[in-house]
Amino acid sequence: MGASMLIARGEREHRLQPKMLNRHGLITGATGTGKTVTLRVIAEQLSELGVPVFMADIKGDLSGISKPGTANERLAARAQELGTELRHEKFPAVYWDLYGKQGHPIRATVSDLGPLLLSRLLSLNDTQEGVLNLIFKIADDHSMLLLDLKDLRAMAQHVGDNAAAFRTQYGNVSAASIGAIQRNLLTLETQGADQFFGEPMLNLDDLIQTDERGRGVINILAADQLINAPKVYAKFLLWLMAELFENLPEVGDLEKPKLVFFFDEAHLLFTDAPPALVQKVEQLVRLIRSKGVGVYFVTQNPLDIPVSVLAQLGNRVQHALRAFTPLDQKAVRSAAQTFRQNPKLDIEKAITELKVGEALVSFLDANGAPEVVDRALIYPPQSQLPPITPGERQQFIAQSPVAGVYDKTVDRESAYEMLKARAAQAPQPAAPTRPPARTPPSTTEVLVKSFGQSAARAMGSQVGRSIMRGLFGSLLGSSGRRRR
CA of 32: how far to CAs of 191, 247, 300, 354, in Å? Predict the structure, then answer.
């Protein structure tokens, strides 16, 4: 077994055991209590152990991990309290960004995301989700690739326009559901999610790399802007976990994991999630350990995580919680009850008294049993706490091992191009025949026509506007009736 990872010290040292890292974990605590620093310390230790890491940078303050730390009075005081020397070290990092601005783009195809996650991303109801499943099925049966959002829009329109032809084989296609899907796709695009869909698609091997010294590469996803679209953020990370599960081979319990995945702001994954999705997440967390992947949820409140998922998180770090409201007090009691009790420690009281950088810690020991909980101080990180500058970030991006691989979008022939070509080849309506030449009108006919046009203009100013309101009302004003 590899060397254990020293993370904290209270009455005793607290070390993460490499063989138990894929038993997953939980880091919780109120804002400003030290969760991000704890995440950073664990990531640094994993890198030194040779384990790659993937984590989202919600606040933009993790990017400094690629540069060595500098003198810091607060961290120096913590090191002195722990009786250790403050080390300064940089770690190998690769920067990613769904929008392609602060890192290499990460893309997935619409087909790869699938109708289940896409339905949640589009906030579809059961009927609309059923129609989306039909769209995917029809695309598959007709060998039409769904790579990006324009493919899905074109396919949805095609299915809607030809609903009668598809009804016998696939079932009823609701025009209202097609409309709802199209509208929600437009909403998704306004959030910038269209940049996530397409090719080249992420190669998972690029997340599982080590540097020339054998240290695990720390993959950092820029999420300070992405978090403004919380559904996109949560479903992207869930998709990424599912991809790791589906594509990595079974390896059982390794001496150390192949990758450790940190899910920051984890409550977003479960907010308004239907039971079927929670069940899928529970199953994914339970099974992904056999692929050599550890998953660590980071959130403010342990109640954010469903009990069925919480039960699978063996390594726990609990920073301070506030107990101002009855709900806060319930969270404190719930957090206290999840630990292996320590007769020397009033856990509920300690949770509300912890200072910044302090935590209640309970890791799995070498035999897989949870340690007795202890009040401990987290060791200081070795890398730079402030974020790197935009110029430094661009230098790291240009020098990264995946530089140039994902930077340019590839738009090969798919559903949109195929349907466009089909429409171009469709028979065109015959040109109208030219009417026979007419003799010039008489003076009487000109006077009658002039009078008629004046009357028409008088009527048209009112009737014309009513016709236009009716037309736009059918497109825009009836969205509430058309949505199911």
Answer: 28, 37, 10, 12
CA distances from residue 151 to 99, 187, 246, 410, 416 in whole angstroms, order as listed: 19, 16, 24, 14, 5
Distance CA 129, CA 119 (A): 6
Say how many C-beta atoms besides its own lie within 10 A of residue 276's C-beta: 9
At residue 72, the pLDDT reads 85
CA dist 121 and 221 (Å) reads 19
The whole-angstrom separation of Cα 343 and Cα 372 is 9
CA 212 to each of CA 18, 49, 126, 383, 479: distance values in angstroms, whole numbers, following the listed order:
21, 13, 50, 19, 58
Contacts 24+ apart (CB under 8 A), 164-167: 166/134, 166/138
In the three-class reduction of DSSP (H, G, I as helix; E, B as strand; rest coil), residue 65 is classed as helix
List the structure tokens of 155.
């396919």
Q: How far apart are CA 23 and CA 454, in angstroms?
A: 83
Question: Cα(313)–Cα(296) distance, rounded to whole angstroms?
Answer: 8
Residue 248 contacts residue 294 (beta carbons within 8 Å): no
CA-CA-CA-CA torsion sign (198, 200, 204, 208) = negative
Beta strands 25-28 and 293-299: pairing type? Answer: parallel
CB atoms within 10 A of CB 6: 15
pTM for this predicted structure: 0.84
Which CA distances in Å does 166 have to 100, 139, 419?
Answer: 39, 12, 16
Tokens of residue 62, six digits: 């993790």
Q: Which helix (H) or strand (E) element contains residue 240?
A: helix 230-247
Q: Which runs of E-coded beta strand occur in 43-138?
A: 53-57, 93-96
Estimate the crossing angle of helix 149-161 against helix 126-141, to 10 degrees: 100
Number of C-beta neighbours around residue 271 at 10 A? 10
In angstroms, the CA 124 to CA 143 distance is 25
For the chain, list residues with pLDDT below 50.
1, 441-484
Token pair listed for 101:
């601005």
Q: Please report, rounded to a whole number, the percentage of residues in the chain having pLDDT higher than 70.
A: 88
Q: Can you tell me the distance from the alpha carbon of 370 to that of 341, in angstroms, rounded to the nearest whole number?
A: 10
Q: How far apart are CA 59 and CA 109, in angstroms?
A: 27
Residue 264 pairs in a beta bridge with 298
DSSP for 120-157, written as a single string: HHTT--HHHHHHHHHHHHHHHHTT----SHHHHHHHHH
Distance, CA of 303 to CA of 76 (rounded, Å) = 34
Q: Is the separation of the CB atoms in 110 and 151 below 8 Å?
A: yes
Report DSSP letters for 205-239, one per residue: GGGS-B-TTSPBPEEEEE-TTGGGSHHHHHHHHHH
